[in-house]
Amino acid sequence: MDFDFMPLIVAVVKVSVVVGALFGGVSIMTWVERRGSAIMQLRRGPNRVGPFGLFQPIADGLKFFFKEDILPPFVHKPTFIMAPAIALVCAMLAFAVIPFGGSLNFEFFDEAIPLVIADVDGGVLLLMAAAGMGVYGIMLAGWSSNNKFSQLGGLRAASQVISYELALGLGVISVLVLAGSMRLVEIVQMQEQFLHWNIFRAPLGFLVLMVAGFAETNRLPFDLPEAESELVGGYHTEYSSMKFSMFFMAEYIAMITSSALLVTLYLGGYSIPPRVVELFGLQGNLLAFAQMGVFVAKLACFLWFFVWIRWSLPRFRFDQLMQIGWKSLIPLGFLQVIASALFVILKPEWF
Amino acid sequence: MIPLALLGAMTSLQTIVLGLIALVAIIAALGVVLHRNPVVQGLFLVLNLLAIAGLYALLGAYFFAVIQVLVYAGAVMVLIIFVIMLLNLQPAARGGSGLTPVFFAFVLGLALVSLLVRAGRSFAPPEAALAEGFGSVAQMGSSLFMGYFYPFEVISLALVAAMAGAILFAKRDLEG
Amino acid sequence: MGQTAYSLLVLLAVAVATPVGILAASHFLGPSRRKRVTDLTPYECGSKPFTNARGRFSIKFYLVAMLFIIFDIEAVFLFPWAVELKNQATSGAGLFVFFEMMVFIGILIVAFAYVWGRGALDWDR
């Protein structure tokens, strides 16, 4: 059989690199979170394992693996085991459409290699669909645990995530109206000039998407599903060992993805202004690597912002949470969508 | 057989993927019918809807595939599983339901099979390849918004009715 | 099948394999002790559970899910509209497509105002 293995090999390498980077990012983020919170609270944070405690995440991971994997007798077993897996799978799939650079060219492969796993027509929608399916992980964790705290945490999480998914959608649509396309690569290319960044064209949309991003990832100030002061651990009260840790991985990956979405839609993504490209004489693969660097730098700033907010703000009450989602973000989102649409119609030459 | 002819036109990897997806869809559908825990039945239905979305994607209708996941698997099923979880439905007892449901299930199943057979007979493989951009978001948009003004606006009325209905059902609790 | 399809399939495989691998590894690596009493009852901060977890919950959870479906369907129409609007804006039918959606959104906003006014969005009532 004459089967061309080259595209498959390229795909495998690309996916491995992205998945590796995601999990690497997750472990670095756990370290950043602990050291960052220590700085803010005048503590030292983990500083024993390796220089500056940098190997702490590895130690933590190993420890998780060697902890007893308790399967309580009162849980609904199949769904109890599946729930963290669903959360992790959905979080990993959602990153597929995020472009993190232009494209690479190599002599051994006759196609350009785009630095995105899937540049598909309905790109953003695919991300939202994958992230939306993550609700089941949390809902099932809460239900299958057969524990009041878990059940309440799962319910809260589900209603929070679905409420803010609408705001997320409106924040995304504000940009789609301006771009006239759902391909994230095209949206990035549109923002090559610094002043063309969508944050300047649709500031309200940026705000809505950012707040919704915090809520979708259950990060403080929206971490009610796991509010430890009232719900013990929330939906993962009964979980232990790696199953518990998988929820955390999913949360951190979701955090990376939603930061990446914000950077891509509103902050120019991986693009480097043409003038800067000219100044440094970047081209070919060098340019692609520089773009990756720019993307990672923007992403890192935003992830730090997530950590910063978490250790600065108190938690919302549940009624406040629902009020912000339905009564503030959704009307603001509609306003921005309509405003963006008016701009596109009345001043099409601007875009 | 016509379906086999259709398969022959595809590349081999697509055929494998199609087979896998169809298998998942059938197993999930059986799970919906045969499993006795309502929540698990709901999950099987989600899996089934995902498999159908996969079939749409294989047919080139990418927009519909994503919408299927977003709306059916992601929104409608969330509500249904919500309700099942909160009503605390117990797993159904085996064989307690009598003959009437079995009779109706048999009649409806027969009707479905005859419908499928008729559809299969009148099916002809498409003669031309799909046009460029078929199933894309832009193509969907232009045919929807340029060709179907009134049906589109009527949808909003249907949604309003649904919203009013939801409020009416919850009315007692909201006022109490 | 191009790079995109391969990449998606490979990612799907990797994404499914990862949690399965993690679950298996954790199952075999972790110790399994004799079950303690505390493992056998739902965790409730040390007090004995006095009711089953399968209680009844506020109807507002249903209401939120219902409203979510309605607005989700609306958002589904907004996505192709957003893409189409710009195409039509360059070819001159932009205003028509714009007002088409404004009527659609307008009707829904009236309904939204009704829901809001009825207090369905207030959780502290």
In summary, what is this structure?
The complex is a heterotrimer of chains A (about 350), B (about 180) and C (about 120). Chain B is mostly helical and about 180 residues long.
List the helices and strands and how they pair.
The complex is a heterotrimer of chains A (351), B (176) and C (125).
Chain A: H1 6-40, H2 56-65, H3 77-94, E1 103-106, E2 109-114, H4 123-144, H5 148-179, H6 184-190, H7 198-201, H8 203-216, H9 228-231, H10 241-266, H11 274-280, H12 284-310, H13 318-346
Antiparallel strand pairs in A: 1-2
Helix pairs in contact in A: 1-10, 1-12, 3-4, 3-10, 4-5, 5-8, 5-13, 8-10, 8-13, 10-12
Chain B: H1 2-8, H2 12-34, H3 38-58, H4 62-87, H5 99-121, H6 137-147, H7 149-175
Helix pairs in contact in B: 2-3, 3-4
Chain C: H1 3-29, H2 37-40, H3 60-91, H4 94-117
Describe this structure in words.
The complex is a heterotrimer of chains A (351), B (176) and C (125). Chain A has 13 helices and 2 strands, in the order αααββαααααααααα. Chain A starts with 5 loop residues before the first helix and ends in a 5-residue tail after the last helix. Chain A is mainly α. In chain A, helix 3 (77-94) packs parallel to helix 10 (241-266) and helix 5 runs antiparallel to helix 8. In chain A, a hairpin with a 2-residue loop joins strand 1 and strand 2 (109-114). Chain A has one domain. Chain B has 176 residues and is mostly helical. Chain B contains 7 helices and no strands. Chain B has helices at 2-8, 12-34, 38-58, 62-87, 99-121, 137-147, 149-175. The radius of gyration of chain B is 21 Å and the shape is globular. Chain C has a single domain, classed as Methane Monooxygenase Hydroxylase, Chain G, domain 1, CATH 1.20.58.1610. Chain C is built from 4 helices and no strands. Classes of the chains: A mainly alpha (351), B mainly alpha (176), C mainly alpha (125). Chains in contact: A-B, A-C, B-C. At the B-C interface, helix 2, helix 4, helix 6 and helix 7 of B face helix 3 and helix 4 of C.
